[in-house]
Design a protein that fits this description.
Two copies of one chain form a homodimer. Chain A is of the alpha/beta class. Chain A is 35% helix and 19% strand.
């Protein structure tokens, strides 16, 4: 893989401006790196890697990666003030404090919806490595990955282990579970059914609604949607359907169909051999996760044979707990990222 | 509700032929009863109740009711030799032995696909009562219901409690769980998406495939479909997809779209007040059931306050365990249907 050219000037503020303290030092910057990336199943593709980095220029770097609908904007800052996808986990006062670490994230390749080929987590991991080259970051203090991001983090640690000191993999392991793969395959079929007659949005919305059931739990639904159904125009409408409608249309508004299909597939293509992992790894599992069963997280930690540890979170939010149980997750991140003297590196 | 007329001669062999032992006594008979049934949400409808009864004419009657795709043919016999939907549970040597009991079952109203109105479990329960009238059966020895059949059994016990001595409700309780309702609502949306352009079969197939995930468990999928996906024509195809294709097309071949939609809705309309249940009830719950959580079965038994008992089955088959763990289910039925002296009534 080779670096084609660096970020375009308007967006890209170089890190190397550190001597001149008369100018307020930017705390966050966004940029775009053009690369020619050899992909596992699809040959070499010219791609843009769109990143955001928040934090002091001399701070250690933590790469943060989320689910397939996450992106480079992790949390609100002085420069980019809108809420990020993990806003409550990467703010001042938390372990992932942008005053203490540089928080780096990117848009997954394929997320823009233009890359209509099979995408592997290997490709995402290699893209992260190329991005670090471009940003002149030899080594990450940590890679914190959640869901798909955990898979990418494991792949990155397996392929570029010298470039990261610590891996935290939450709600994502070395392989997709066959039941979860079947669930995603059917979501992709819902999209295909919609595409049959140009009802793409309807198909994607339905796919997202089915996905929501896998992200959440019966416990939560039991509490939130306990009213009896209504009969409207002769049809039964259940209590959760309003919520699912909103979830579907919000997703459709921000997600290209191709991005969903290719990133969904990418989860199912994911495989990492735990023997290839030498980076100290903390696996965070949620007991009620319907996509990543606890047994698979235990299996991964067993295979890591001393190089990994397991933290189990109990939550009514299942796969989504990482974004919901932020106090608990923060306290795990705190214990992992602190060094032996109780201070952060 | 009123009886319109009785079964048509060609199919209907009357029970009352018992004196003439020179003719071999029929062990099984099928019939059809025409009724005008006042329905909960849809006014009075003329319906045919299609039943099958297997067993000696003087034996006590056990009504057996299954999931929404079950029907009147419970098990193979001398007269109707094809396998039934609960073939391994209602055969010679089992508790539900057609030599010992008359096994009665019917096709759910709406199963023929012509009744395109909201159907409630109240309607099914009342249809059972009308059928018993027509067959001159004052009281059932037991009602054994599984899944939707358990809901219908609970409704029957609540509304016609004097007509049944014992209820066994497996994998179905007094209400649908809100999470399961959401899951079914999305299956109905898959059908609606297919119907947009006459891809009805594709929509129904996809709905069934999603339903299969709710009937089975991650444990089973983990064991059966553990191979990596393939890339076929540039698309990822997961290991379980062949199985799901077969499940979908088998279902489409035997199920009218309207029957699926209306019976699926019927599960979500179901509500029974446990205070109305006076019949001694055994609730069978499967620990891994993803549609009927164990906690709901426990709740029902609590509300039955001494009139009900709980049996929990561990199984990798989840909601489908009733049809898969036949030894275990048979042994529960045996202990329930035996009287205090250890003999069957």
């Amino acid at each position: 893989m080779s670096l084609v050219n660096n970020a375009s000037p308007p967006e890209h503020v170089p890190v190397s401006v550190k001597a001149d303290f008369s100018i307020p030092r930017p705390q966050a910057r966004r940029g775009e790196v053009r690369v020619a990336l050899p992909m596992r199943y699809a040959g070499v593709h010219d791609l843009s890697l769109r990143y955001e980095m928040q934090g002091p220029a001399d701070a250690p770097v933590v790469f943060v990666a989320g689910g397939i609908s996450a992106h480079r904007h992790v949390s609100a800052g002085t420069e980019f003030t809108e809420r990020g996808w993990a806003n409550d986990l990467a703010v001042s006062g938390r372990t992932l404090d942008p005053e203490r670490f540089r928080i780096l994230a990117f848009d997954y390749i394929g997320a823009e919806g233009l890359l209509d080929v099979p995408i592997d987590t290997v490709d995402q991991a290699d893209a992260v490595a190329v991005l670090l080259d471009a940003l002149d970051i030899p080594r990450l203090r940590a890679f914190v990955g959640y869901s798909y991001g955990a898979m990418v983090g494991l792949q990155f640690a397996a392929r570029h282990g010298m470039r990261v000191s610590r891996l935290i993999a939450a709600s994502g392991v070395h392989r997709p579970h066959p039941y979860a793969s079947a669930w995603r395959a059917l979501q992709r079929r819902a999209v295909a059914l919609g595409q049959l007659q140009c009802a793409d949005a309807q198909g994607l919305g339905l796919a997202r609604q089915f996905a929501m059931l896998s992200y959440r739990t019966p416990e939560e639904f039991g509490e939130r949607f306990d009213s009896p159904p209504e009969i409207i125009n002769g049809r039964v409408r259940c209590a959760a359907e309003d919520y699912l409608d909103v979830a579907g249309s919000q997703y459709v508004a921000r997600t290209p169909v191709t991005a969903f299909l290719r990133l969904s597939e990418s989860i199912d293509l994911h495989r990492v051999n735990p023997d290839d992992l030498r980076v100290p790894t903390t696996v965070i599992a949620v007991e009620s996760d319907r996509l990543v069963p606890l047994s698979d997280s235990v299996l991964l930690v067993e295979k890591l044979a001393g190089r990994g540890g397991l933290r189990v979170v109990r939550s009514a939010y299942g796969h989504d707990a990482f974004l919901k149980e932020t106090d608990r997750i923060d306290s795990i991140l705190n214990s992992v990222l602190r060094d032996n003297d109780g201070v952060f590196a």
